[in-house]
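User: My instructor asked us to take a sequence, write out its structure as tokens, and then describe one feature of it. I'm not sure where to start. Here is the sequence I was given:
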Amino acid sequence: MYLPKFKQKAGGKIEGTLTDPNTGLLYTGPFVRDYKGNYFKGSKITRNSKPLTYNEPEKPETKFVNQAVYPTDKEIQKGKMKRYFAKDNRNGKIIELTKDNYLAENKKDKLYIDTVKLDWELKEEKDTVKGYSNLNSKVKNENTLKELEKEMPGISLTVKNNTEQFTNLNKLSTRIIQENLAAEPGVFVFQGTDIPYSGPYHIHPILGPMVGNNHTSTFHKKLEYIKK
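Assistant: Let's start with the prediction itself. The structure tokens for your sequence are:
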């Protein structure tokens, strides 16, 4: 075997690992790579070069943790919002997801993960014409959870702990959004990740800290404090 020097590269950093196909053991010695992406022992490719097996690096899975979800201003005015949940059937853990992460979980198509979405009432409805009140939000939501228990057992216990975060949401207009703030390194990470963030941010009274100087109607990522 002969390859000109420009078609082979010795050493360098690789993301994965190399193993000897004959022994299955990890290889940490000198290596060379050809233009097709094949790896060999040594510092150059010859007719006697021994091949190596390249192993792709393991990709860390997204943390299966509960995410802080709050209604938008539009949903508050409408009096209803969508909520999304996932259950790991291996251990029975149920978490709440944002819409984007809910869609991402569905795309993974993992057999041990179940997902569900539901309509969540935010305000009490009254029938002033007939002179009586319809079922208020709390009762409607409880009925919704009872039905979903058949599909995802344990969900009522999970959602029960999050009910109070939607109390008095119609008073949003009286709350203040803190804007034009600057985040120092070591304070925030992007929500649901370990990726650090520093730079301009603002604090929404319901949604919490978010990227950007000002709160707008366009999408901008949420932040969460680094736990120390």
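For the description part of your assignment, you could build on this observation: DSSP finds four helices and 15 strands in the chain. Try explaining in your own words what that tells you about the chain.
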